Amino acid sequence: MGAHAFGSLVRPPPSSTRTLVIVILSLLALSYGGTQASGLTETESLLKFKSSLSHNEAIPNWDPSKPPCTGNSSNWLGVICHHGKVWGLQLENMHLGGKIDIDALSQLPELRTISLKNNNFEGPIPDFRRIIKLRSIYLSNNDFSGDIPDDAFAGMDALRRVILSNNALTGKIPSSLAALPILVEAKLESNQFHGSIPNFQQKPLPAINMANNQLDGPLPPNLKNLNPKFVSGNKGLCGPPLEPCSGDKGGAGTEGSKNKSSSNSIIIALAVLLALVTLMLIVLFLLVCRKKQKGGLSKQESLASQDANQLEETYVPPSEEPKTTSKRSTEPGKLNFVRDDRKVFDLSALLTASAEVLESGNFVSAYKVEIFSKELLVVKRFRQMNKIGREDFHEHIRRMGRLKHPNVLALVAYYYRKEEKLLVFDFVDNGTLASHLHGNRTNKDQGLDWATRLKIIQGVARGLAYLYSELPMLVVPYGYLKSSNVLLDDSYKPLLMDYALLPLINQEQAQNLMVAYKCPEYAKHGRITKKTDVWSLGILILEVLTGRFPTNFLAVGNVKGENLVAWVNDIASDEEKGEDVFDKEMGSPQGGNDEMRKLLKIGFNCCHEDVDVRWSIKDAVEKIEEIQEKS
Description:
Elements: H1 2-8, H2 15-31, H3 42-51, E1 53-54, E2 69-70, E3 73-74, E4 79-82, E5 85-90, E6 97-98, H4 102-105, E7 113-115, E8 122-123, E9 136-138, E10 143-147, E11 161-163, E12 168-170, H5 175-178, E13 185-187, E14 194-195, E15 207-209, E16 214-218, E17 236-238, H6 253-291, H7 302-305, E18 336-337, H8 347-351, E19 354-360, E20 364-372, E21 375-382, H9 390-401, E22 411-416, E23 421-426, H10 433-438, H11 450-470, E24 486-488, E25 494-496, H12 507-513, H13 520-525, H14 532-546, H15 561-576, H16 594-606, H17 617-630
Parallel strand pairs: 5-7, 7-9, 8-10, 9-11, 10-12, 11-13, 13-15, 14-16, 16-17
Antiparallel strand pairs: 1-6, 2-3, 4-5, 18-22, 19-20, 20-21, 21-23, 22-23, 24-25
């Protein structure tokens, strides 16, 4: 329906009335001149917000000459975009502090989610009520303190997630939080809340965690089935599922014991009966699903079909854990596994699992999913892969599934649908190389030193060489090598992701988005070569050594390779003049910068503009390994 349908129900006012309305609105505009009526652009609002933060150098590329969003792609670090509008802010692990400028954020009309977790913010929680469309608030692991007003969340009817864990908040849990109509998650653990727990009325009950506070009194009756660990660490709480409150233990003596024993027997019998009925329903459900294979996913297609402005919602975890099986199906509408060493689950379990948005764009969206207890996966949803048929897609993905290398992120499973595809990988918790190079620039203790950066480059080169050897039929075996596609595990071992996708992606989208199509040979001759991925490796080496971000990689559209060549030439010019081009955060190896300069020369040879002069992957890996031996 929308605005057109609504407008058709309202008759326009007479001409004289319309004139009066125009006059009144004009006077109002004049009276509000320069303030909320004129408003700020999204660029101005974000820059105003950034200026209020301390340590805001951790946000390096908020360039006012570029818009924050281009379609669904972000040009600014930490900005999530949807249809050209700022949809979310994800500024995590940046040591940010200072004031959260709600005045500035309130002028982002489509802002839906804010994540500032793992920073250094202090003081009271800001008044988020002014951001009327807000759906998610992530403020965990900061130093927020003080009481939260009881009406802090009043009127925020779109709010679904409130994550405030691991702060120093005091006072009572606001009743307005419990009254939110569509709340699905409230994490308040490890604070200093006291008093009783308000009555959460939502159906189904939100995912609530209030452990390790100073709460007291009986739990509300509708929390009696809550897992006790989510209210543990509150010495004053009582009532189911915790110990009974004083005076609630029932009759005394033998008669009381008999009544309790009888009640327990009835409960056990009912539980057994309920289990049998549940088992019968599950069997019946599986039989019905098999008969509906041709009908596709029907109702459980939510994750693969919902719009980006719905993807931050939390889904209720499945109650039945799938059984392990070695069968690997490639039937239509099925989740297909390519690894035999993983526990199998079905598509419905994946689509109904608890999910967190990691990335949302017009090419790929990514979600962190907890499918089993503490087992995290990443689901990547691609919309630009409908050029390839079902059988060709299955064949290529099975080839990807056979790839096994310490520096290549292994594919776990996939799902095929004509309009979009899902690829499932293991979740790696230490972030990307880009976030470590450019997201924590002010943290001297956690910066990547020379030894770590050399280790990362060596791992990337080995992983890339492995892709060349295992996928010889592909002109470009990777196609998407950049620092944001290199994951780091807890020991800083690099893992390549989003590899070997070029044969699957629609050509127009590939030319606009993939790094391979920004190489000099494509800009000059309209072609890519067997050395195109080596060029990307050279760019990555220079980025790691200098700490400079190749900003043209962010641009979407017909980006000419000469722009990146000029970026390389600038670095080369600095180096030839004897200037120190190396990132100060990585320090120096013993014996001076000779090893660094050798790696810098390797980077130049890898991204040479002339393909005939540019090194092969074999030459590049051999030279990089020599640095390892001599250092």
